[in-house]
Specification:
Chain A: This is Alpha-D-ribose 1-methylphosphonate 5-triphosphate synthase subunit PhnI. Chain A: GO terms for molecular function: lyase activity. The complex is a heterodimer. By secondary structure, chain A is of the alpha+beta class. Chain A has twelve helices and six strands. In chain A, strand 5 and strand 6 form a beta hairpin. The longest helix of chain A is centred in the C-terminal third of the chain and has 27 residues. Chain A is globular, with a radius of gyration of 26 Å. Chain A starts with 8 loop residues before the first helix and ends with a helix. By secondary structure, chain B is an alpha+beta fold. Chain B has one domain. In chain B, 45% of the residues lie in helices and 26% in strands. Chain B is built from four helices and three strands; from the N terminus they run ααβββαα. In chain B, helix 1 runs antiparallel to helix 3 and helix 1 packs across helix 4. The longest helix of chain B is centred in the last third of the chain and has 28 residues. The radius of gyration of chain B is 21 Å and the shape is extended. Classes of the chains: A alpha+beta, B alpha+beta. At the A-B interface, strand 1, strand 2, strand 3, helix 7 and strand 4 of A face helix 1, strand 1, strand 2, strand 3 and helix 4 of B. Strand 1 of chain A pairs parallel with strand 2 of chain B, so a sheet runs across the interface.
Chain lengths: 362, 151
């Protein structure tokens, strides 16, 4: 049976007009400006950039406004926008070691070169709602003379003593996987996993990271270091013949240090998980590093026994735009499919009734 | 592709780095104050596109694709023949075009560009970075050990 699905145009148009009205809300309340969102809802902007996989604060702010604050909808909008632009190329890898550091902490060493800088953190706040914040007046932050001391990566410090698994070899000829260009083909190399995790859903990765702590693929993690700050993005410009900086982006990096691995040839070393995310996104970077370590199970010859260690399961379900697309498509008209199901169940029930009658007759 | 970067390339890179990092408004103000702006024709753009930003596994290992960033770029030729290129993060076509014109001017005559545009932008950037460092420094933890009374 063919069921025509037509006649929704006016309803759709009116629904969109109603959405626009509700988005704007009470007209006596001033409309939000994008710069207000960028400045005052910065971490929501960062999340839309990170999971939208596109660094552009104004665009992310526009997406948040258009999505009425629905983060996944905003991420969807950002992802859709990026498909409209040409790709100029790939940057040189950013150097988090030469970051302009805003926050840098280590849970493994108290005294480390460069020190522990708390930065703009929610840690140690009392989590008591403060109505005064709505007033808007805030004193300027305290300043103190800055050290000239460099802040080396904690993993490099332990690495020099041989106690830490090194960053790994870099083969300059090896092509770097790009999931925006090629469909994923399991099993993946770590570069593709890291790309997928960097844009993966924070909630999903947080839950998986948490599951490893609760015993589902235990890896005994410590935060070697978290650092947040700005790094230069260098790009090889063909017409110039050399690389120039395009400017700086803010990123969050988490080095998770995990329990040992060794072999007959290599003495025991700490192993590592890595998290790197656009913007200030500490929870996401930590979750990413836990899941990155869990997904290295095969590499270390560990039994894959927990969800967080199952690469295909994790990476196939970490993208919230894909996930929401498939879940939310269920609300679209399925009239024909459902008609077929109805026919089927009526036939099954008829057969069931016929069998009952036959049984009763015997 | 050049195998060796010349001294003038190094200076040009340093100049372009400063311009890319400059806040749009500060750059526009300095450029507004530039008296004898050369006429220029557009060779390419200005246009907006994407650059895939890469990180390294563990911070120093194999590269991976972190995510994209919007980038504006422009190439221009000024009346005296020099071709300039401008690149910067974000969707700011005017900024990319101004950078390209300044790049062309710099090739014609380094000193005035350095003095009237690059030096003030460098000072501005240095002051901003210093302020950020000092704000973070105030949140540095000064550990001290309590003296125990039992020995």
């Amino acid at each position: 049976m063919y069921v025509a699905v037509k006649g929704g145009e006016a309803a759709i148009a009116n629904a969109h007009a109603l959405l626009a009205d509700r988005r704007r809300g009470d007209r006596s309340v001033p409309a939000l400006r994008l710069d207000q969102i960028v400045e005052q809802l910065g971490l929501a902007v960062d999340r839309a950039m990170g999971e939208g996989s596109l660094y552009d604060k104004e665009l992310a702010a526009l997406a948040l406004l258009q999505a009425r604050g629905d983060l996944i909808e905003a991420i969807f909008l950002v992802r859709a926008y990026r498909t409209t632009l040409p790709r100029f190329g790939y940057s040189n890898p950013i150097d988090t070691g030469s970051m302009l550091i805003e926050r840098r902490i280590s849970a493994t060493f108290k005294d480390l070169p460069g020190g522990q800088l708390l930065g703009p953190t929610f840690d140690y706040t009392h989590r008591l709602l403060d109505p005064a914040i709505a007033g808007g007046e805030v004193p300027a932050p305290i300043t103190r003379e800055a050290d000239v001391e460099q802040a080396p990566r904690v993993t490099d410090m332990l690495g020099r003593q041989g106690l830490m698994e090194p960053d790994g070899d870099t083969d300059p000829d090896r092509e770097v996987g790009d999931l925006t260009r090629e469909p994923l083909d399991f099993p993946l190399d770590r570069d593709l996993r890291l790309q997928a995790l960097a844009r993966g859903d924070e909630g999903f990765l947080l839950a998986l990271g948490y599951s490893t702590q609760r015993g589902y693929g235990r890896s005994h993690p410590f935060v070697g270091e978290i650092r947040i700050g700005e790094v230069e993005v260098e790009f090889d410009v063909p017409e110039l013949g050399f690389a120039v900086s395009l400017g700086r982006v803010r990123v969050t990096e988490c080095q998770m240090v995990n329990q040992f691995k060794g072999s007959a040839k290599v003495p025991p070393q700490f192993t590592r998980g890595y998290g790197l995310v656009f913007g200030q996104a500490e929870r996401k970077a930590m979750a990413m590093s836990l899941v990155d370590r869990a997904l290295r199970a095969r590499e270390f010859g560990e039994d894959v026994v927990a969800p967080a260690q199952d690469e295909e399961f994790v990476i196939s379900h970490s993208d919230n735009v894909q996930a929401t697309g498939f879940v939310e498509h269920l609300k679209l008209p399925h009239y024909v499919d459902f008609q077929a199901e109805l026919d089927l169940i009526r036939r099954m029930r008829a057969e069931h009734d016929a069998a009952d009658m036959k049984e009763a007759a015997e | 592709m050049q195998t060796q970067t010349s001294l003038s390339d190094i200076a040009r890179k340093a100049m372009l780095d400063v311009l890319a990092a400059a806040p749009s408004r500060a750059l526009a103000q300095l450029w507004d104050a530039w008296a004898d702006k050369p006429e220029h024709s557009k060779v390419r753009g200005p246009e907006v596109g994407l650059v895939m930003v890469r990180g390294r596994a563990g911070g120093g290992g194999a590269p991976f694709n972190l995510g994209e960033a919007t980038v504006s770029r422009a190439s221009v030729r000024i009346v005296t023949g020099q071709v300039g290129h401008g690149y910067c993060l974000g969707r700011d076509l005017a900024k990319a075009e101004v950078i390209a014109v300044i790049d062309a001017l710099w090739q014609r005559d380094v000193a005035p560009v350095e003095a009237r545009i690059i030096a003030p932008l460098q000072a501005l950037a240095a002051a901003g970075d210093q302020k950020s460092r000092e704000e973070s420094a105030a949140t540095k933890v000064d550990f001290f050990t309590m003296v125990r009374g039992d020995n």
